[in-house]
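Deliverable D5.2: sample structural annotation.
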Amino acid sequence: MARYWFGESPADFVVVGGEQVTVTGEQVGYRAILYPGARLWVYDYATGTRISDLLDSSGASVTEITASSYGRIPRFRGPDDVRRLLIGQAEDEFEGELPDLHKWTMLTLDWPPILDSLTTRVADLEAGGGDVIATAHPLIWALSGTVDTDHVSAHPYWAIEGREQTITAVRAQATVTTGQVTCRVLTIDATTGDTTPVAAVVLDTTTDTATVTPDAAVSDGTGVTVEVERGTTSDEVADITVQVMLR
């Protein structure tokens, strides 16, 4: 994961109230003073918990940030993948009861490249191509009750998304009273109807569920289905479910 940059933007200065001045008539205000050398703590934006996993501009590990000699907050990097955080005056500078300290929101300086990356990814998705990694989605076949015969599902899934897909995982479960059952994932040639086994899960009386990760390719236009085969015709098997994760 990336550690994003914070600080040293035009607004990143520590400012405190200085001498009281009269603005107009009876209205008073305070001069703004840049606070040199201010010690700053960083906090999680959502929880308010202090963050001490920081890197300064040179890459050295630090637990707090120190403003420059004229109050500027220097560049630093937060924890992995954090794009937004809170920053405020170091709390250990106060004795006794802690006053109500303000914590200010800071956003990463890396938004432009982040947005550029998202824009490119969206364009690739809309074009239906590009080097895009899709989230795996499940295909589920279920056979309820007692399995009296070996069985190939007559309800295949067909890859018609215009790109190659991948079987990333296969999970099978069944009630096996005696013997064993093999649950196979088959690919189907759309032209010939020929099937090819690409993954298999074997269940028995001691193993009622198991998962394999075949990383098997499914080309565009190819079908996917499931075959169930008992060890012998006398094996007692029931309630089979096969889940295939396809990406």
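Annotation notes: The mean pLDDT is 90. The two ends are 22 Å apart (CA to CA).
The annotation will be released with the project's public dataset once the embargo ends.
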